[in-house]
Design goal:
Length: 280
């Protein structure tokens, strides 16, 4: 029996998210568990996938109302925790990797100082030990000449290197759960696979759970063990193989992707009139 079948790292039941006075929820009745495995959430923009990820991290704005029958990390409820308690969890037990490192890294601090600060906060290291841990993590994410890179500012490194730095920083404390929100969408195609492979290696090495959020259903299918498909704020289907897809939205996503082996003059378009009447 797999670990996620025994005790999930993350357990969600009946998650709902709404903003302001809008009666239409952005996320509605979402439920799933994640163990020490790789799980992907896919859907188009506005489907609720990123909102779900931020609800788990408790990083939604004050205008958001979040309710759930259960939202537990390693058996401990997240919704009842104070912001101070969540601050201690973020980065240590649960980490978030954003899609563009340029907006995630502090522009006025060097790479080395930022990773060393994570080592100080989450591992209790000081001074030279914190910088040594930062250097080791940069080596782990296959950055050549880590000493030089540690002295650089975020604007002096490439997007691919910036994402490696973010992975190094977020996985330094070996979190129980890693949420990666479109971690390769801002990168060149040539480096996307390398970054995903690196993330996979470190997640496996740390025995962490991974929630990969993406609009690219084929990439998620190739990378994850399970695929959660969201449409209009709801989970409409959960798969282990794309070939088993039955919901028209999942099939529509697949049909809308270009296939180099079978090029067509015009890609298929989702028929939303059918989707709105289809029950999840």
């Amino acid at each position: 029996m797999q670990d996620h079948e025994v005790k999930p790292v993350l357990s969600i039941k009946g998650l709902n998210v709404s903003f302001g006075r809008n009666p239409i929820p952005a996320v509605s009745d979402v439920s799933f568990d994640i163990g020490r495995e790789r799980v992907g959430i896919v859907g188009e923009s506005g489907s609720g996938k990123s909102t779900t990820g931020r609800a788990i991290m408790r990083l939604l704005p004050p205008s958001a109302t979040v309710t759930a029958q259960r939202l537990d990390l390693d058996g401990q409820p997240l919704l009842s925790r104070s912001e101070r308690q969540m601050g201690k969890l973020r980065g240590k037990d649960i980490a978030l990797i954003m899609q563009d490192p340029r907006y995630s890294l502090n522009p006025v601090l060097t790479v080395g100082k930022q990773i060393a600060e994570a080592a100080r906060l989450h591992l209790g290291l000081r001074g030279g030990e914190a910088f040594a841990a930062a250097r080791t993590m940069l080596e782990r994410v296959r950055i050549n000449d880590p000493e030089r890179v540690m002295s650089l500012y975020p604007h002096q490194i490439s997007g691919g290197m910036g994402q490696r730095v973010m992975i190094a920083m977020m996985l330094l404390a070996k979190p129980k759960l890693v949420i990666a929100d479109e971690p390769t969408s801002a990168l060149d195609v040539s480096v996307r696979k390398d970054v995903l492979t690196l993330l996979d290696e470190l997640v496996r090495e740390n025995n962490s759970g991974l929630l990969l959020i993406s609009h690219d259903i084929r990439m998620v299918a190739a990378f994850c063990e399970r695929i959660i498909v969201m449409y209009s704020g709801r989970v409409v289907e959960t798969l282990t193989r794309l070939e088993d897809a039955r919901h028209p939205y999942t099939r529509g996503l697949m049909a809308a992707l270009p296939d180099p082996k079978h090029p067509v003059r015009r890609l298929a378009v989702l028929d939303r009139s059918k989707l709105d009447t289809e029950k999840a």
